[in-house]
Amino acid sequence: MIDPIKHRFLKYMLFFNLYFAEGLMIAITTVVTSLYLREQGISIPITTLIVGVVNIPWILKFVWGPIVDRYIKFGRKTFIIFGGLLSVFAMFLASMVNPGISLIPFALLIFISHVGIGFIDVSTDAWAIDISTDEDRGKINGSMFAGQYSAWAIGAVLLPFIGSKFGYGLAYFTNGLIILILLIFPFIVKETLKFKTRSKIIPIIKKEFKKKTTLLVTLFSPLVFMNEGMLSFIIPIYMRDSLGLADVQIGLIAAILPVTLAIGSIVGGIATDIFGRKKTLYILLGLNAIFTASLIFSNNWWKLSIIYGIIGFLMGGHSTVSCALFMDITNPRIGATQYGIFTGIANIGLNGGGMLTGTLVTILSFSQTFLYAGWVFGPTILVLYFIRLKKGNKKEISC
Q1: Could you read off the pLDDT of 305-331 as tens digits, one per residue?
Q2: Domains along the chain?
């Protein structure tokens, strides 16, 4: 087996690969499932609600994380493989269910598939915390998000094409098959555990969450990801219902977001390791607020493509920096648990914001929903202001 600690490139490739599997699930849910449900005549509010419900396992990281930490003697890889196989099995079954006839069983299978991805996610994050340093944490997060967004881009183009040409059941089967192939990679990588004995999780959690900075970051986490949820849920529907684009066209344009997210995540990871967390976040969040609001002018495919691409770059940057910030203050003894709490709460913002968009569009309009998506960065920047960093150290946060 190859030791990723001794081979820096392999370390980046490991986390790129594992997050690639997660990105495929984002594509199959936010793009393919949205299009599939609309094709079956499911209303916009119900469609965004279903997409939000099946994403709930991402919020439940505070459940999966303690399991991984409690049984740390089995290592992170064991839970990555378990989660991957669970996800693949549920995807294969979902490929055989028609949501137009059996919506609840279909949604349940997608939900179970996301439970598997949840185990992959918290285990991968804990592994990254174990082997990362202050000097490379931003770049590691950049490689992770680059993998996730690259898969999202590929899935957004490939899977709708398969669905529209050969049936959406095959799209779900293909998604599961790719994830199954990706599970080969962890088998060739050596895992070295930083802590081999089980920690007393509850006392450490209580101690960590008595810290002012930890509480502020916990509040910051759902706010900073809410915009991403709102846009990723509603843009595919906007392209179909407002711009009148076909599914293949929607897939191609939807792929612009994850491609630019991948580029932004790499740039953001490098920038934050050089300039620090807060400075980088102020710039990225402020610009994203402006460009999100400018979506009100995207009344054709090429305007939407340009604005959406810029938003993706900025979004990828601030997502990477935010997650590096979460890792900075995470106690490695409970890496899966504490980081899982941060990212789980972040997904409440992402998923909750996305679930509300269908209702907002129905009550208001697409344009007004875009304005609200830009407005959420105001409270985000305000909370960020009160997160204090130690002077002379760009990455370590004071308590």
Answers
A1: 999 999 999 999 999 999 989 988 888
A2: 8-385 (1.20.1250.20)
